[in-house]
From TrEMBL:
Protein name: Hypoxanthine phosphoribosyltransferase
Keywords: Cytoplasm, Glycosyltransferase, Magnesium, Metal-binding, Nucleotide-binding, Purine salvage, Transferase
Involved pathway(s): Purine metabolism; GMP biosynthesis via salvage pathway; GMP from guanine: step 1/1; Purine metabolism; IMP biosynthesis via salvage pathway; IMP from hypoxanthine: step 1/1
Residues in Phosphoribosyltransferase domain copies: 7-159
Species: Ruminococcus bicirculans
Length: 174
């Protein structure tokens, strides 16, 4: 097992998620909220966040994978529940929940997809924001922490599919 140092502990993250949940609760008062969890990475954050949001909501899941080829253009493939439980997206304010906003390609594609289905608003909540690596023109509406250009694991974030279960956000040091 690699040596992993703690960047944000389980306790501090829990406090930050609670605060974010309260903000989101205010934002969506009286609205029809559809939370969309972007798999796989966001499964832990989504589970924590939705339990901190005190609004009526529905929850959907979508899988996104970003492939970056030899050229500098990224390619994002989206799969999963495409009919969103048969909901008419024109009636639902969508909150995309992601583990980390990095180049922004994934969330940019997803935002376009939901906007094209007629959602009155499409916003973004992330656990972490890494603005220094941004390629797409996108910023999170709700975030727990902004971080430097470091590769992080834990709370859903993987390194070759490992470490998603760590209860804290960590940095691998060889
Ligand atoms: P992007 O914003 O570049 O389209 O892609 C974001 C995705 O890249 C995230 O959902 C995540 O899966 C992965 N990613 C970006 N930065 C990190 C990181 O520091 N650690 C881990 N484990 N995954 C990352
Ligand atoms: Mg992800
Ligand atoms: Mg990954």
């Amino acid at each position: 097992m690699n040596n992993i140092s703690v960047l944000y502990s389980e306790e501090e993250l829990a406090l930050s998620v609670k605060k974010l949940g309260a903000e989101i609760t205010e934002e969506y008062k009286g609205k029809k909220l559809l939370v969309v969890c972007v798999l796989k990475g966001a499964f832990v954050f989504t589970a924590d966040l939705v339990r901190s949001i005190d609004n009526d909501m529905q929850i959907a899941f979508i899988t996104a994978k970003s492939y970056v080829g030899t050229s500098s253009t990224g390619n994002v493939s989206i799969s999963g529940d495409h009919d969103f439980m048969g909901l008419d997206l024109r009636e639902w304010d969508v909150l995309l929940v992601e583990d980390i906003l990095d180049t922004g390609r994934t969330l940019c594609e997803l935002k376009k997809k939901f906007a094209s289905m007629g959602a009155p608003s499409v916003k973004i909540a992330v656990m972490l924001d890494k603005p220094s690596r941004r390629v797409a023109d996108i910023t999170p509406d709700f975030k727990c922490y902004e971080i430097e250009d470091r590769f992080v694991v834990g709370c859903g974030l993987d390194y070759d599919e490992r470490y998603r279960n760590l209860p804290f956000i960590g940095i691998i040091s060889e």
